Amino acid sequence: MIKKSVSAFLSLLFMINLSFAQKHKRDVIYLKNGSVINGQIISSLPSGQVKIKTKDNSLWVFESSQIDSISKSGRASNQIRNGYFNLTEAGILAGNTNNKYGSPFSLMNISGWQFKSGFSIGAGAGVEFFSETYLPVVADFRYYLKRHGVNPFFGLQGGYSFALDTPDKQYVYQNYILWPEPSSGNTLDIKARGGFLFNPSLGFCTSLNENMAFTFSVGYRIMRHRYNREDNYKIDIDYNRLSIKVGLIFQ
C-alpha cells in the first residue's frame, strides 16, 4: 500500500509539472535591435502592430518595422536562471543481467534552487524497486557548463534509502547431522534497514520552452541494503549500478 502511494504521488507531481509548464508557454518577439521580449501575444493588428503582455503584466506594442521574427511558445533565451526549480527523473539502475533484479525502476522528484553561476542545490525523495521497495531521500548537487542550447552538467546525489516493505522470512537450516535436511530447519523473520547511497553522474539539459527543460544523465550508483534477522544475524548487500535517467525540469 505504501509503495503504491509513493509511486502515485511522484507520478502526480510529474503530471502537474508537465501540465503547469505547458500552460505557461510563452511567445517570443525578436527585435531588430537585438532585444528579446518574452510574454503572451495579446493581438496582431492588420497594420502590423503586435501587442505582447510580459510576465510582470506590462503591455508592449511594437511596429512590424521593429520586429525581426516571432516565435510561438519558443525556447527560453537563457535556460540557466536564478530561482526555484522542480525536477522529476525516471530511469533504471542497470546491473548484471543474471541478477534477479537486473534493472530496477527508479523515480525521483527533486526541489531546489538554481544559481546563475551554473550551480544548483536541491533535496528530494523517490521510489525504487529491488527485493523490497525503497524510499531514497537525497541531497542533489549539479553544475551546468553552459547557459544556452544543449547544456552539459555534472551531478552528484547522496543520501539514505529507507525500506518500505518487510522481506520474506528466511529459511535457516540446522545442522544436526552431516548435511542439512529441509525437516531440520526453520524460518526466521528478517527486517530491511535500508542504507546509504552515492550517485555521481554526467548528463545534458536542453530547453523545451521557457519554463521546462529535458534532461538525460548516466551515472554510477553505489549503495548498501542492510538486513537484521531475528537471531541477530546481520546481512549487508552492496549494489554497484549504472544509473540511466531522463527527466523534466520546471523552473
Structural write-up:
By secondary structure, this protein is mainly beta. It has two domains: 26-71, Roll (SH3 type barrels), CATH 2.30.30.100; 80-250, Porin (Beta Barrel), CATH 2.40.160.20. The protein contains one helix and 15 strands. It has one helix at residues 2-23, and strands at 27-31, 36-44, 50-53, 59-62, 67-71, 83-94, 105-114, 119-129, 133-144, 151-163, 170-173, 185-188, 190-207, 212-229, 234-250. An eight-stranded antiparallel barrel has the order 6-7-8-9-10-13-14-15. Strand 8 (119-129) and strand 9 form a beta hairpin.
Low-confidence stretches: 74-78
**Count of discrete structural domains:** 2
- Whole-angstrom Rg: 25 Å
Terminal Cα separation, in Å? Answer: 32 Å
Number of H- or I-type helical stretches: 1
Would you state the CATH class of the largest domain?
Mainly Beta
- Work out the strand percent: over 45%
Order of helices and strands: HEEEEEEEEEEEEEEE
Per DSSP E runs of 2 or more residues, the count of β-strands stands at: 15
Kindly report the CATH topology of the largest domain: Porin
What would the principal axes of the Cα set say about the shape? Answer: elongated
For the biggest sheet, the summary is: 8 strands, antiparallel, barrel
The CATH architecture of the largest domain would be Beta Barrel
Q: Determine the mean pLDDT.
A: 79
